[in-house]
Design goal:
The structure holds 2 protein chains of 2 kinds. By secondary structure, chain A is mainly alpha-helical. Helix content of chain A is 51%, strand content 11%. Chain A is built from 9 helices and 5 strands; from the N terminus they run αβααββααααααββ. In chain A, a hairpin with a 2-residue loop joins strand 4 and strand 5. The radius of gyration of chain A is 18 Å and the shape is elongated. By secondary structure, chain B is an alpha/beta fold. In chain B, 44% of the residues lie in helices and 18% in strands. In chain B, strands 3, 5, 6, 7, 8, 9, 10, 11, 12, 13, 14, 15 and 16 form a 13-stranded mixed sheet that branches. In chain B, strands 1-2-4-17 form a 4-stranded mixed sheet. The chains are: A mainly alpha, B alpha/beta. Strand 2 of chain A pairs antiparallel with strand 1 of chain B.
């Protein structure tokens, strides 16, 4: 068991929303959206008998492997629903998800500042343009520039890459993707 | 797992048979929203074909605990959950005078609010919204699935055999993709042209929907609008290739399905709820006084069971000293308390137990139950002895219950309803009896419970003091049911003197009930 398998990952309702938005950009396909949510909650162990009206959202700590399986199963369930395969046994989806999840897949938690950096770069017309951390820093408001360092901008850009909102062009250049064309999830093979 | 909890945002759960709610703090209007939400789940299942199918399969899953039936129930749930949640979210918002907007503190329901807005439009008048949402949800749930299951025989029925357009969620997707919203908008324009100048269309009281909007001519017009929009929704679904069943015409198939289901459950379908409550297999819609379970928080979580003679078991001190005997089902105690210590509970269907609370200083430490073997063990005629029977114990063990209940004077005998009550009230009053009643709010450690109390009187005969613990929602439902249901209307009479007349008795019974029971309500027999 590698360290990722013992590591706990937190997934919450906002992660689920963000993951869905990255996958489908809206929830007009109500059948796929519900299949996604149903499977995510089932594999994460959140599904109980009955229909609830519960306050708050949900937040669950799962071993990284289980979290990977839950996320992949949710996406697969939505995909199968769209493909018209909604009667597939749940076990088939989970087994497939388990295979896919052997790849390293970890949710990336973006802060409000990370997202506003991406928004700022897009507003500055830098979508699709390679930028350095210093150029990204200059795209911020004067007030904000005084509050954050270029090093912090470098870290934020790297988090945007991990979240699929930007790509790394070279060691010190990053490219922010256009809204709606974000990579819905980053998958990398484990190094060990 | 950590499901985020908000201290004063109540939660509720519907399980196809009834619903469970937290007792809510005084002033918590969210409690009404939560309970109204669960009530609409129940209403949708009780009144539609797909609802009849899933509740019957749920009853089989519950009675047999077979993995196969549980899987079938969950599969059917996944075919109707968007319709169910959207209906319950939208109807509960409108019925509690809220706009169809996301509810602060309940983010998991935001997407159902979006579904309702897509379905009806954002600017529809609540009077039109209520009729339109019910019409859409009913058209989605009135599919041919029930008849197909009954035709296959429920034992052989496989949910995956259902055509897509007999599945409610798919039917809803058809309405969302089609012109239902435009039809609702047209209905809204017509309604505004016809009623726009009336007081109820533009209430000045601050309410979004005036009560008069659903009464008299306006109520009749609402019914017509609902029928018209339901037919339009059915037409859209039929055009896409789905079948449509007229409202209520699915009951014949449901009776067939129920009889097939009964044959598969050797010990009976005791948990199907209101569907088999009425005599002769007549199907009836369950209301708040047939389905509620209310979680109480004042009682200790530990119960101690001791034999008669081990300790006194007396409650209260000085002039308040008394003996409180409860006739209940041992199973109810096992399920209610987290820890049950002491001797084994009797293995009989019901048991008489002397009950009191044991204190550790000011703290309520545990609920003490002393097992009584028969009524001759103590002087039940003494004025300080009170007997309170749970209605589920009386139903499950009538002979033992009769022996105990005859041993106590009726002035100190109560019947606490933990089973469906509206059918019971009708039965008790069928031969000219009348239920003289009063409802009051009782606050227990800051949490509110409504208590309906009364006695059935017929000539010189009078029943034990009937006590129905409920919520604000349940009390309102009871008021409405007495107006709409002619049998209840002629049998039930308000009498504002009852709490005063029965003051001493109620003081004893309500204190024991609300501080020593973990769950109360007319659905709590299932716990």
């Amino acid at each position: 068991m590698n360290s990722h398998e013992t590591e706990l990952v937190t997934i919450d309702i906002e992660d689920a929303e963000a993951l869905w938005e990255a996958f489908a950009s809206n929830d007009h396909d109500i059948l796929a959206r519900e299949a996604f949510e149903r499977e995510l909650r089932f594999v994460a162990g959140l599904e109980d008998e009955g229909l609830y009206f519960r306050p708050g959202g949900w937040s669950i700590n799962l071993p990284a492997t289980a979290a990977r399986i839950a996320v992949v199963a949710a996406i697969l369930a939505a995909g199968f629903q769209i493909a018209g395969l909604e009667d597939l046994d749940r076990e088939v989806i989970i087994a497939t998800a388990s295979l896919v999840a052997t790849m390293d897949l970890r949710p990336v938690r973006l802060g409000r500042n990370d997202r506003s950096l991406a928004d700022r770069l897009r507003q500055a017309g830098l979508t699709g343009t390679p930028v350095t951390a210093a150029q990204a820093h200059r795209a911020l408001s004067k007030k904000r520039r005084r509050e954050v360092s270029t090093t912090e901008i470098t870290s934020a850009l790297n988090r945007l890459v991990a979240a699929g909102i930007a790509d790394r062009d070279s060691d010190d250049l990053w490219v922010v993707r256009a809204r709606g064309s974000e990579a819905w999830i980053r998958i990398s093979l484990p190094s060990d | 797992m950590a499901v985020t909890d908000h201290l004063f945002s109540p939660s509720a759960r519907y399980d196809w048979f009834g619903w469970t709610v937290d007792s809510v703090p005084v002033e918590a209007s969210a409690g009404r929203l939560a309970e109204t939400h669960e009530y609409f789940h129940r209403q949708l299942d009780d009144t539609t074909a797909f609802g009849g199918l899933i509740t019957t399969v749920a009853a089989l899953a519950d009675s047999t605990r077979s993995g196969e039936w549980i899987a079938k129930r969950d599969r059917l749930k996944s075919m109707c959950d968007i319709v169910h949640e959207s209906f319950a979210v939208g109807m509960s918002l409108l019925a509690t005078q809220r706009r169809v907007k996301t509810v602060s503190g309940y983010p998991a329901y935001d997407r159902y609010v979006r579904v309702v807005v897509r379905l009806l439009g954002a600017e529809v008048h609540p009077w039109v919204g209520l009729a339109a949402l019910r019409a859409a949800a009913t058209a989605c749930m009135q599919s041919g699935a029930l008849a197909m299951a009954a035709g296959d025989d429920i034992e052989r029925f496989a949910p995956s055999s259902l055509p897509r357009l007999e599945r409610p969620n798919h039917r809803l997707a058809v309405l969302l993709a089609g012109t239902f919203r435009e039809r609702v908008a047209a209905a809204n324009r017509m309604a505004e042209a016809e009623f726009g100048e009336t007081d109820w269309w533009r209430p000045t009281s601050g309410a979004l929907l005036a009560p008069e909007a659903l009464e008299g001519d306006a109520g009749d017009a609402s019914g017509n609008l609902h029928r018209d929009l339901r037919e339009q929704a059915e037409g859209l679904i039929a055009t896409a290739g789905g079948g449509a069943i007229n409202a209520e015409s699915h009951y014949a198939a449901l009776r067939v399905l129920l009889s097939q289901a009964r044959a598969l459950a050797p010990e009976g379908l005791t948990r199907i709820g209101a569907l088999v409550e009425s005599p002769g297999g007549e199907l009836m819609h369950g209301g708040a006084l047939d389905s509620q379970t209310i979680k109480l928080t004042a009682a200790p979580t530990r119960a101690v069971i001791l034999p008669y003679g081990a300790v006194s078991g007396l409650s209260g001190v000085g002039s308040d000293a008394h003996v409180f005997v409860v006739l209940t089902r041992p199973e109810r105690i096992r399920r209610a308390f987290a820890v049950v210590e002491g001797i084994e509970l009797p293995s009989t269907p019901s048991a008489a137990l002397m009950r009191s609370t044991v204190y550790d200083g000011e703290r309520r430490d545990c609920v003490l139950h002393i097992v009584l073997d028969d009524p001759t063990q103590m002087d039940l005629r003494s004025r300080s002895v009170y007997l309170s029977a749970l209605s589920s114990a009386v139903a499950s063990d009538p002979e033992r219950a009769a022996i105990w209940m005859r041993s106590v004077d009726a002035s100190r005998l109560s019947l606490v309803m933990d089973t469906p009550s509206s059918a019971a009230l009708k039965r008790w009053c069928a031969n000219g009896g009348r239920f003289r009643t009063q409802t009051r709010l009782v606050v227990v450690e800051g949490m509110e419970v409504r208590v309906v109390v009364g006695r059935v009187e017929e000539g010189k005969r009078r029943s034990p003091l009937v006590i129905i613990p409920t919520t604000e929602f349940g009390a309102r439902w009871f008021e409405a049911a007495r107006i709409e249901d002619s049998e209840l209307a002629s049998a039930v009479f308000d009498d504002g003197r009852i709490f005063e007349e029965e003051e001493d008795h109620l003081d004893i019974v309500l204190n024991h009930m609300l501080y020593e029971e973990r769950f109360v309500g007319t659905g709590s027999w299932r716990r």
